[in-house]
Write a structure and sequence with these properties.
With 119 residues, the protein is an alpha+beta fold. Helix content is 41%, strand content 14%. The chain contains four helices and two strands; from the N terminus they run H-H-E-E-H-H. The chain has a two-stranded antiparallel sheet. Strand 1 (65-73) and strand 2 form a beta hairpin. The chain is extended. The N and C termini lie far apart (39 Å). The model has no long low-confidence stretch (mean pLDDT 90).
Length: 119
């Protein structure tokens, strides 16, 4: 038994040191630098959704979804993303937009940081 807490512990090396020897050696199915087998659009949508859930806390349910409508590289090498956000109720739309669009802007800024490092 290895006592660990997902909330309190920062170092999971004791768990890894016990588990890794038990795992069978197998072929590498993906290149070492490949982070996921999911399309970039899905990854970007999930990063945006993550920021929505983080910033709205309990005000918006987990059923919020994000669909990437357009994603292209601009001439200055910046990434242009146009996404639609879907919510269950009209009242949740106002929560995500925030006062004068402030929360929506913050969602975009925080998501862009993660997207730029991931893509």
């Amino acid at each position: 038994m290895i006592p660990l807490s997902a909330l309190m512990d920062k170092d999971f090396s004791p768990l890894l040191s016990e588990l890794l020897p038990c795992l069978p050696v197998g072929p590498e199915f993906f290149p070492e630098d490949m982070v996921t087998d999911q399309p970039e659009r899905l990854l970007v949508a999930e990063l945006i959704r993550e920021k929505i859930l983080k910033l709205t806390r309990d005000e918006v349910p987990h059923s919020v979804s994000v669909e990437i409508q357009e994603m292209k590289l601009r001439a200055n090498d910046s990434l242009y993303i146009r996404a639609d956000i879907y919510v269950e109720r009209p009242s949740q739309k106002g929560i995500i937009i925030g006062a004068k669009g402030a929360l929506l802007k913050l969602i975009g800024q925080q998501a862009r940081k993660d997207i730029e490092s991931a893509v």
